[in-house]
Amino acid sequence: MIKKFLDYLKFERNYSPDTIEDYDADLSAFEQFFRKLDPQLTWETVDADVIRDWMEDMMDRGNAARSVNRRLSALRSLFRYALSHHLVSKDPAHLIRGPKADKPLPYFMREKEMDRLLDPRMWEDTYSDCLARTIIIVFYETGIRLSELTGLDDDDVSFINKELKVTGKRNKQRIIPFGDELAKVFQDYERRRDKDVTRVTDGLFLNRKGKRVTNVQVRKMVEDNLAKVTTMKKRSPHVLRHTFATAMLNHNAGLESVSKLLGHASISTTEIYTHTTFEQLKKEYKSAHPRA
Question: Is 145 tagged catalytic?
């Protein structure tokens, strides 16, 4: 399909060889991405989520917003052409918006800040505080995404194997091992939850009404509690995911191992935390902590 589109640009639209070469590179990169993501995917079955994953992957690897938008524009053009020539039955790219500004390097918390925050003396003896503290520890110790955390059920935690079963993007599952300390945190939380809350769902993390916590509720918990120990403007669950990755690599964990724990489709996404980029992360951190 790419070849047909490039021939169209060359012979009917009279595009320059350099422009056609750029289109070829951008579209081939997307095809390689979705075939690596799922070998069963085709140009016909690619959906908007795959395109968004591609954009996120590009930005995680440090591509500027302008570069991502250029490649998205090439993809939109291809799908418009393919739809009008009956090569596909739908255009998943036409409603996708490109990034408005360059994505900054990831923010992350310092270990001493996390130590302060997780000190039991920082928390009150209430269910709300027990829930929030447990959620923050799970983010920090496992690096899971927000949607992965809110989707956890009790059965996803194995105390026998000390493993957490996580369902990530495109329903792909991965297993994350955990140690005795996190096992105790889970057990203490479950005891408190079962004492204070009447559950109406199988969810692991429940609000006071016994319902599964929502993404909005978790974001608020994380933001409010990180504000106790940091002056950073960005205080989201994703900051804790970045903190997990940074801490793991700072303690000499292998890049491939960290990539698997994070559920990255490509190890190149994980590389943003390494080498010269890691030095940039430190500079980014210092600028976010003017009093550090």
Answer: yes
pLDDT for 281 beyond 50: no
pLDDT interval class at 258 (50, 70, 90): low
pTM of the model: 0.58
Cα separation of 168 and 171, whole Å?
A: 5
Active-site residue, 238 included: yes
φ, ψ (nearest 5 deg) of residue 61: -90, 10
Catalytic residue among 116, 169, 234, 260: 169
- Identify whether 273 is a catalytic site residue: yes
pLDDT: is 6 or 241 the higher one?
Answer: 6
- Catalytic entry in 76, 133, 242, 264: 264
